[in-house]
Write a structure and sequence with these properties.
mainly beta
Length: 205
């Protein structure tokens, strides 16, 4: 069974994946680019899947020119694998703050990113959350939105989130569950497959 929802057309809500994708891409890019590089010995070595450097209890921050914090990535341990050019982070915590001070956060027991940050995988208690937006003159309030699963795969450049694991998506008091999920921000389509259930709270007048 396959179910698609296009009912959430509010642009502010659709910023969640883009913001978290940008956060993950920036964080992993900074980690890879700013970490020390091994000194070349000039001898060709057989590549094995072993880390060439480690980090512990680290925090990577990205600031605007004004000094305002834009993104932050923290972890208890980080390991870079040169054979696959991937970065693995334990207890990953991610934060992104928009210019109008709206916050998006992501977390997982483990995160794995390729070298250029174009593909990021979150393992174990993976959660992506966007905070609520209060009502403004001429605009409706936007409730908080969250996507949670044991595994989330993110393609920042394509603005896609996917999982083959059971997933829960909540938006305010609305809640949807499924055995797998595909979300595309560019085409604004959320698709859940398998045993799909949904609960939509009647709007209050």
């Amino acid at each position: 069974m396959s179910t698609s929802w296009r009912r959430y057309s509010d642009r502010a809500t659709l910023y969640l994946p883009a913001l978290l994708m940008a956060l993950l891409a920036l964080g992993t890019w900074w980690l890879v680019r700013n970490a020390p590089q091994p000194v070349s010995s000039g001898v060709q070595k057989v590549r094995v899947h072993e880390p060439d450097y480690f980090m512990k209890d680290f925090s990577i921050k990205n600031f605007e020119a004004s000094g305002r914090l834009k993104t932050r990535l923290t972890g208890t341990q980080g390991r870079h694998y040169p054979d696959t050019d991937t970065l693995e982070v334990d207890e990953a915590r991610m934060l992104s703050i928009t210019p109008d001070d709206r916050t998006s956060v992501g977390s997982a027991k483990r995160a794995l990113s390729n070298g250029d940050g174009s593909e990021v995988q979150l393992f174990g208690d993976a959660v992506i959350t966007r905070e609520a937006v209060a009502a403004a003159p001429g605009k409706k309030a936007v409730p908080p939105m969250q996507i949670a699963s044991e595994f989330l795969q993110i393609w920042p450049n394509e603005e896609r989130i996917s999982t083959h694991k059971p997933v829960v998506m909540t938006r305010g008091e609305d809640r949807f569950t499924g055995d797998s999920m595909e979300y595309g921000n560019l085409d604004q389509v959320l698709q859940m497959n398998g045993r799909v259930k949904g609960f939509i709270q009647p709007s209050k007048r």
